[in-house]
Specification:
This protein is α/β, with parallel strands linked by helices. Helix content is 38%, strand content 17%. The chain has twelve helices and 13 strands. The strands form three sheets. The protein has a seven-stranded mixed β-sheet, sandwiched between helices. Strands 5-11-7-8 form a four-stranded mixed β-sheet. A two-stranded antiparallel ribbon has the order 12-13. The chain is globular. It starts with 12 loop residues before the first helix and ends with a strand.
């Protein structure tokens, strides 16, 4: 019978220190997994993290009081992670804040309990940040897993700028492949907005864009699992409404806000006309997204001579 914790469970500090000694060669990565009743998937998630064999990982799991066997799975691996916590919370973003408060890594990111890292993904993250000290925020190629955990879709290298993101050319920055420096996290407020039940990552990206450019990495880091229990997929329209409200609020802060508001209103009206939607995307939206303007970020790529480097 599964033992249920009354308040919280945290693995010992002695175990944490002995299993996660810092190294001088790779930056310390703080990685958090928020979980609640995800026993069907969470073991694959944990194994994808541990299989990285990353030498300087601060991995913390925050459970919201699961009753489905999730805690038994976490206990199987508690000797191989920094620690874990189980107690009621106010949703995934509240759990993330708890987890990040208990980590010390200079590089940060999270992997949800249904998603997975690609082999070598954390090595990409660590070596990029080690080799490019001016880079504060990165995202890898967007990728999708099916429900069985098989990769079935790898997207082209995306490129965002703050203006294009707020204009609405592409609202999906794949959280599973996105990492940042703790210094950026602190500048942007040092938290995820726990008042949001959905789209907290989107709101965090908006704050990050105030301080740093997002650099795409031509590599596989992490992927999103498509499954029927996904809250975002189940309530996509509501999620988009939250995105739009976040952007409307942000546009009040920037000089180009009025122009972008007008563009978004006109763009939204065009998209409501079925026979114009595709033509509009092909003739205007896609060219503007790919336009080589001064705001378009360079891509981080690897070669044997240069290592990780920025190129157009």
């Amino acid at each position: 019978m599964t033992e249920q914790p009354s308040k919280s469970v945290i693995s010992s500090e002695a175990r944490k220190v002995s299993s996660l000694r810092p190294t001088a060669t790779m930056p310390r990565i703080a990685l958090v997994t928020p979980v609640f009743n995800s026993g069907k998937y969470v073991e694959q998630t944990i194994r994808s993290v541990l299989a990285q064999n990353y030498p300087n990982l601060d991995y913390f799991i925050v459970d919201g009081g699961s009753t489905d066997g999730t805690l038994d799975i976490i206990r199987k691996y508690e000797d191989q992670i920094s620690g874990w916590l189980s107690e009621p919370d106010n949703g995934m973003y509240d759990a993330l804040n708890k987890g990040f408060e208990r980590t010390t890594g200079e590089i940060m990111g999270w992997i949800s309990a249904t998603d997975m890292l690609h082999p070598g993904g954390l090595a990409v993250v660590g070596s990029v940040f080690r080799g490019l000290p001016g880079v504060e925020w990165i995202t890898g190629r967007p990728t999708l897993y099916n429900e069985e955990g098989q990769v079935y879709n790898v997207h082209p290298v995306p490129r965002w700028s703050r203006i294009r993101f707020l204009a609405g050319f592409n609202r999906y920055i794949m959280q599973e492949a996105t990492y940042w420096r703790r210094s950026l996290w602190d500048k942007a407020g040092g938290r995820v907005d726990a008042a949001l039940r959905m789209a907290g990552d989107f709101e965090l990206w908006v704050r990050f864009f105030r301080h740093a450019r997002l650099y795409p990495v031509d590599a596989l880091i992490g992927g999103f699992r498509m499954h029927d229990d996904s809250l975002g997929l189940q309530r996509m329209e509501e999620c988009h409404r939250i995105h739009d409200q976040i952007i409307r609020t942000e546009l009040e802060r920037i000089p180009q806000g009025s122009l972008l508001k007008a563009f978004r209103a006109f763009n939204g009206g065009i998209k409501k006309v079925p026979f114009l939607r595709y033509a509009w995307w092909r003739l205007l939206e896609r060219p503007l997204y790919t336009w080589h303007g001064p705001d378009r970020p360079l891509v981080i790529r690897y070669d044997a001579e240069k290592g990780w480097h920025l190129e157009s």
